[in-house]
Amino acid sequence: MKNDQIKNIIFDLGDVILNIDVPIASKSFADLSGREQAEILTIFKESEIFRQFETGTMDEPSFRNYVREILKFPDLSDEAIDTAWNSLLLDLPPERVELLKKLATKYRLFLLSNTSSIHITQVNKILKASTGVERLEDLFEIVFLSYEMGLMKPDTRIYQQVLDKAGLKAEETLFLDDNADNIRGAAQLGIETIHVQKPVTILEYLQDYAV
């Protein structure tokens, strides 16, 4: 149900705007290295490589070198690593972008994503190919990315930074995310939330807001 107090909408990226399938990445790295997918998942979890990359403590060259190190595969090319890492990024339905354009006539729109620079480069390519829109910044007033902020959802500090930087009041702000922990983090600050759960999409969740 529509909340008439809402003036601002913050969107997550993966499985909210862009369809993703996270396990595909670990399978891609397993195929590259000749290891089992379960082993790859364990290696990545223990090294916290993706957390480091997505909070900006590791840049692109460091990330790629660390992948080579933990997979014990020194000859792995930059391109192969990037392709495997980006394999979890699927399609971006054009109708979701059309919804964003419609919402932008009534609300201030923002993006808040736990992500990495390699992913954002690829997302912008997918966005342009599917909709003609050059980059995410063309759809949102401000794009907030974890690797630039040094924080990740569901840390409440990341939501507070968004509110402060954009000059938003929590009670006038709606946040959509597919991760329940991220929803709870935002709700702790008094932000209105919608937990996006497939197969329902933002087209249905925000139908009343787009009218």
UniProtKB/TrEMBL annotation:
InterPro entries: HAD-like_sf (IPR036412), HAD-SF_hydro_IA (IPR006439), HAD_sf (IPR023214), PGP-like_dom2 (IPR023198). Gene3D superfamilies: HAD superfamily/HAD-like, Putative phosphatase, domain 2. Transmembrane segments: none annotated. Keywords: Hydrolase. This is HAD-superfamily hydrolase, subfamily IA, variant 3. GO terms for molecular function: hydrolase activity. The keyword Mitochondrion does not apply. The keyword Iron does not apply. NCBIfam families: HAD-SF-IA-v1, HAD-SF-IA-v3. It comes from Dyadobacter fermentans (strain ATCC 700827 / DSM 18053 / CIP 107007 / KCTC 52180 / NS114).
